[in-house]
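Q: For a teaching handout, I want to show students what a protein-ligand complex looks like in token form. Below are the inputs, and the small molecule is BES. Please produce the holo structure.
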Amino acid sequence: MKSLAITANFIEANVEALAIVIFKGEKSPTDQLSALDKITGGLVSAVLAGDEFNGEEGETAYLHFLPSGKVKARRILLVGGGDRNDFNLPAVSRAAGTAVRFLRKNKIRSFALDPRLTEPAAAIAEAAVQGFITGQFELDKYRTKDIDKKPKPVETFGLFVAGAKPAEIKAGLERGQIIGESMNFTRDLANEPPNILTPTEMANRASKMAKECGLKCEILDEARMKKLGMGSLLSVSRGSEQPAKLIVLKYTPAKAKSAKSEVLGFVGKGITFDTGGISLKPSEGMDAMKYDMSGGAAVIGAMRAIALLKPNVPVIGVVAAVENMPDGNASRPSDVVTAMNGKTIEILNTDAEGRLILADAVAYAEKQGATRIIDLATLTGAVVVALGDQYTGVMGNDQEFIDEVISCGREAGESIWQLPVGKEYSKMIRSDIADIKNIGPRGKAGTIMGAVFIQEFVEKAKWAHLDIAGTAWLDNPKPYQAKGPTAVGVWTLVKFTERFK
Ligand code: BES
Ligand code: ZN
Ligand code: ZN
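A: Here is the structure, written as tokens, with BES included.
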């Protein structure tokens, strides 16, 4: 992939097509649009004046025009940006995604975009190229037939920001490329079938990435985990032929310590397939449970980006990679197990396995020195009922920390909505025979039950839990994004690390 920083003469960019954002209600050309109008002999004016294209987000209008002076492009793509007042950096990313998906289908190999937003040029570039790269991801990796019908990728992306310094744009383009590629790395993991992406394979991919990007990586096997007392995590993998792996990735910044000497801990649920175990799931829709490792995949992708972006804060990534299967050795509903922190757990539903593996993974992250922990997990069907695929649910033990996570999400275009936790909820998972049980009362506050369970394994750290069951997978494609894995969480985590200067 090649990216170009364009600061003057947008219309003369050395590309096949020029894409430009149009806002709702724009009826006649201004600024760059006037130049485009001129080279097309008034086509832009005509489209704006008509009522087929209204500048709504996701809309596009494609114009062909004849050679004109120094202009190399022969196509213009008008990309709807929606309300001008709501048009922000995440919207730039979506506009770039929409443009690349449209132009790719039309056999274009290079284009330049003018997002018409006044924000720092580096931030615009970062968002735009992220959208350009994630917009090109497809989930048909294993298709061998009809590959000639697959659109070829757009290779060159030019970004125009009026009056910006080329170096500023370039810096943003580089950062955005790292973020976009890391998100696609996460999506590729989440998209892998579970016979290929076993816990061992997930660990192999993480350690290969770590080597390439300069992260420390340690893979804990079951024997190590047993020694550490991770009876909760290990209870989930008992029924599987595939041994569990605890993936530990460490990033240390060049400067010895961040000002606040915080250590971030990102913890991911990596259930490579969730059958439910002995509390077996119904077969209909069970195939979706290959993406039950999306939280883990997000942590690995975020660690990749962090390794390359080098923020000034130490980060530990912990991914519990486990397969949840039923066999003669599997955990039974009513089993009691002991977690690493000594707490005893009555397992009443083996399908509530995510919290069981996170219990030990979160405790491990804190033991390794994490002072602020964010865990990501496709934890509950209940969060899909509550928030659909629009918002990730967040719960935690420190309001300021939660607010920060939500605001990082907003910057990244990843919407997050808080749900409550508290003593009254924690009471609901008290067990008759052990310290806690892994489910609450049927049909009550399912998402919160997951959170208050994990909370039992956090000691002093500030902690936020993101339930991404609804947001990690897109059932229907969007103009800027293929259906399938979304890599939700990656950019939010990256944004969070950048708050440490
Ligand atoms: N992996 C599922 C949650 C899930 C459901 C993710 C739908 C994505 C889409 C999780 O392990 C699970 O099975 N949770 C149970 C918990 C229940 C038994 C308390 C659920 O949500 O039904
Ligand atoms: Zn489950
Ligand atoms: Zn699960």
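A: Two things your students might notice: The radius of gyration is 24 Å. The pocket of zinc ion (ligand 2) is lined by residues 274, 276, 351, 353 (CB under 6 Å).
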